[in-house]
Amino acid sequence: MAEIAVMALYDQIIDNHGEFLEGLRHRFLDEDRKSALQKFESIGFPTKKDEEYKYTNIKEITEKNYNFFPKESHNITKEQFDELHLGEENFDWIVFVNGKLHKELSKVSIENVEFLSFNYALNDENHKEVFEKYFNTIADGNSAFTDLNLAYCKYGFFLKVPKNVVIEKPIHVFYISQNQEENTFYNTRNLLIVEDGAKVEIIESHHNFDDTFVLTNSVTEIFTYPNAKADWHKLQNDNDTSYLVDSTFAKQEKDSLTTVNTFTFGGKLVRNNLDFIHNGSNINSFMNGITIIGKDQLVDHHTAVHHKTPNCESYQNYKGIFKDNAHGVFNGKVFVDKIAQKTNAYQQNNNVLLNEGATIDTKPQLEIFADDVKCSHGCTVGQLNEDALFYLRARGISKKEAQALLLYAFANDAMQNIDIEPLKEKVSKLLAEKLNVDIEF
């Protein structure tokens, strides 16, 4: 514990948690918040001695002091905000600036659904039963970051899509930090409930406009009911003074489909924790990721799929391109229970290192206790194919352009299941931009 206690953020939390709790009064959560802080105090932040953080040193994050209650005022201009859009004029969007929901910047046309800011929903007596039924029921309570989120969560949104309601327009959720004079710690919390036969698509992005550091500790819980479909796309392209720890948990019932796509192009340190829980037959789960980073950035993907029931499928496809002194981590786990016969699970992680200083630690894992399954996993780490590179150069393409085209093709298949054209185009453009190549769309 002594090794952990010297960290600035840890000391700040332990010394001042009474003051923090005073500003976070939410009915039934008071005792849970105190309990979560007590658990955090006994466990502390993970270190490289912890297996789950063996390759990810978070000392850079925890040695800083942060302001837990950001200044609400901002001066975001329309031009700045427009640059964040994907060209999605026909979308709905929800905008949080410095933690607060701004209706004047948002566009919400969805009907027949329950949509509230998280803070409002916590204080709304009409949603008490819903929160007690769903809130924090699938989020992992054995993590320092999920414990901290439970203790301090205030920002984010609650969305319940009723039975057989199909939301035709994707919803883009923007989390923006601006006008902060101190390093700022956001604990965002999202709760999505998609009832029988319903359908919704969410895009989530985080943006720091300041030179001060921002640590976003986000927890999302997704509940997908029978014959429902929920897609959640994470577009991570923040600046070099941004840290993101994202923990997403998805619980699916029979005949449902849930997708989480994670596209990571920016941020100083990004940790993505993704857990899928199967709770019925004929479930389909899709997890795709593209990571392109350089300099001394670090991106860590930790995924887990819990096959608890028969006749279900899961598909994981993560691609990574690393240059300069960037560091990538992938740890994908598939658990197949004894009763989960006829499981079909696929897991693949492919990586390209462009410089000697770039590194990737990859560890796909299968734990199978059923005997009638089709499960496969694999990983590759290497450089570009020299024969393919020679083929392109022999046709008059420069070495730089040939390399970029091969890398673009390498990453492209991880976004084939995106059915939102503006998002697919945005990811394609970011790919081309990061690879310094001109590609027509």
TrEMBL record:
One of its GO terms (biological process) is iron-sulfur cluster assembly. Residues 181-410 form the SUF system FeS cluster assembly SufBD core domain. Residues 10-173 form the SUF system FeS cluster assembly SufBD N-terminal domain. InterPro entries: Fe-S_cluster_assembly_SufBD, SUF_FeS_clus_asmbl_SufBD_core, SUF_FeS_clus_asmbl_SufBD_sf, SUF_FeS_clus_asmbl_SufD, SufBD_N. Pfam families: SUFBD_core, SufBD_N. Belongs to the iron-sulfur cluster assembly SufBD family. This is Iron-regulated ABC transporter permease protein SufD. It comes from Chryseobacterium limigenitum.
